[in-house]
């Protein structure tokens, strides 16, 4: 059994769980996956023994536990990847860290109004100017990173990095809600959708049966076609 254990929530809804999961998968690190369905009796019963914060995700490395998506990614990069979670170039690395921190602490409007729901497909309707401004900032950030640092591959800094782990869930939200994008931002969303590990996570989401009304019943959003991406 692997000495790495990653405790996550529902794949359909838990964007924070996806982030360290992707980093581990991209670097082919073996780990045991423990999924606790959010807002259930099972979650309430088991989480206290698994997570100091009472939240997911949490990584167990032997007898050591670290929680919070970005902290987990930092730990994995430093302890298991010889720093390869970040770009090697110092300037690219600094920008990648800044972009990741901005995602970690900000974009509350996008999080609230475009909740992660990988099984859903919705027609785009603007959530309002404040959310539109956050989307514009994300698009500008992606475009800048690709232009300045993306020459060696399709990810934000060429090769997959922690910055991508932080922004893939945003790209998936944009796909779910058919957010109008073009240029480098549209290409980046497609890169995320085409990734084998993202496809694996989405496949797991489609197999889940739990439905959380707070992420499903959104008056703003009108389902597309059959209303499902599965």
From TrEMBL:
Molecular function GO terms recorded: glutathione transferase activity; maleylacetoacetate isomerase activity
InterPro entries: Glutathione-S-Trfase_C_sf, Glutathione_S-Trfase_N, Thioredoxin-like_sf
Top-level taxon: Bacteria
CDD domains reported for this sequence: GST_C_3, GST_N_1
GO BP term, pick one: L-phenylalanine catabolic process
Span of domain GST N-terminal: 4-84
Protein name: GST N-terminal domain-containing protein
């Amino acid at each position: 059994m692997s000495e790495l254990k990653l405790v996550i929530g529902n794949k359909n809804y838990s964007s924070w769980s996806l982030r360290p999961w992707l980093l581990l998968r991209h670097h082919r690190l073996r780990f045991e996956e423990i999924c606790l369905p959010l807002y259930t009796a099972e979650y309430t019963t088991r989480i206290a023994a698994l997570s100091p914060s009472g939240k997911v995700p949490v990584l167990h490395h032997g007898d050591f536990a670290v929680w919070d998506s970005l902290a987990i990614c930092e730990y994995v990069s430093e302890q298991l990847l010889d720093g390869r979670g970040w770009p090697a170039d110092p300037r690219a690395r600094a920008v990648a860290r800044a972009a990741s921190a901005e995602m970690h602490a900000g974009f509350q409007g996008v999080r609230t109004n475009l909740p992660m729901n990988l099984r859903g497909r919705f027609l785009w309707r603007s959530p309002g100017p404040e959310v539109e401004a956050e989307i514009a900032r994300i698009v500008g950030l992606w475009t800048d990173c690709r232009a300045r640092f993306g020459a060696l591959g399709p990810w934000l800094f060429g090769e997959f990095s922690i910055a991508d782990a932080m922004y893939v869930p945003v790209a998936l939200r944009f796909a779910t809600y058919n957010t109008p994008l073009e240029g480098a931002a549209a290409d980046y969303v497609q890169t995320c959708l085409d990734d084998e590990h993202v496809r694996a996570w989405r496949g797991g989401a489609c197999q889940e049966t739990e439905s959380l009304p707070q992420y499903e019943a959104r008056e703003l959003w009108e389902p597309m076609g059959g209303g499902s991406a599965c």
